[in-house]
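The following block was generated as part of the benchmark described in Methods. Ligand: fe (ii) ion.
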Amino acid sequence: MKKKLLITALILLSTTIGHSQNEERKLEQIIKEWAAPDEFPDHVVLSATADPSHSIGINWRTLSSNEIGYVEIAKAGPGPDFREKKKRFTAKRTLVNSAIAEKNGFESSFFEVQINDLTPNTLYAYRVGNDHFKSEWHQFKTAHDQAAPLSFLYVGDAQNYVLELWSRVIRNAYKKAPNADFFIHAGDLINNAHNENEWNEWFAAGSFIHSEIPAIAVPGNHEYRSFKGSSSSTDKKLSVQWTAQFGFPSNGPKGLDKTCYYVDYPNTRIIALDSNREIELKAEWLEKILAKKDKKWVIVTYHHPVFSASTGRDNPDLRLHWKPLFEKYQVDLALQGHDHTYARGAIFEDTVVLKKDSKSKTVIGPVYVVSVSGGKMYSIDPAGWDEYGAKQGKVGEKTQLFQHISIDGDRLIYQSFTATGELFDRFELLKYNGKNSHFD
Ligand SMILES: [Fe+2]
């Protein structure tokens, strides 16, 4: 552990101080060693499954020489004797060699278990590993299977300075909502899709939070990169770690496992979309899922914003293919990233500009949010909303943020907080007859 802390310090040092080429190479080697897989399981992460009331996805990483891995799980109890009732589930192992994509890559064993038949609304303890090396016991709670209050966290791009600066955001988010049901990451979790050092930063920054609050994540444009040596920008491939290190559902369009899927809570459906490719194909699938109309609340998350918040950025394909469906089926929230700034707004039945003291207004389609959690910042651009009938409400820039959203019956409360924990933005939605009234 001491070694890891020392190396963490060196990484931080390397980002701030200039070095000679030799020193740079030495530092690079130290960082590579820091990010290397170990006998001990690391990168332990919970993923939301399609049915989080009864199942959970658990993934982790070790040295490539480890062929066997398993999860032990039991209902958690106040004393250590809960372990007497543990059950064991053997993991699926995937060998991933990130060296084929990145010069500083490794071969690693990634393990995955989906545990089913769990009891709803129940605290479980689990650990991962093999006969020789195991993680600590982590705890998580399954979702309710009946209507019940739900709350979750959401962040935009972590992407840059992940260990240096994103760590304070995810840790503050956890302090604000330690019992959140899940944690949405709206793409660009790291900067270079296949880079194990950066993934190691993401896991180090989130630490046990990743192992105890199930993630729902979508790939951003930075989760797609060409392999080393390829000069073609059209040859971008999904992060080689993505499908091996996360246990998201495979209930999306064929061939888009774990990048396009949905997760069902009793009153709420979360639809996770990959906005990088095949927008039109996903629209067909999206309409099928939205047409079910069997959930009171529907929240979509994807990376590229329908209404951009920074200069020179625009995603007309999303407005053409997805936005009409969001409106036709009254999606409630669209949680996005990519623009490294903050903007929140919507299309309203009237055209009054949102003001802080405004009364309620009826929303057409979702409230759209662009947010950023990492250290890279762009400037806000007010263009790109009014011309499509949308109104920007709260905007902000140069601020690291996380969001906490809670749903109880017909009421949704959205709050955005800064990295230092102050309330930055807030609104409420009240559902009546299938329409949402919006209160600032
Ligand atoms: Fe992005």
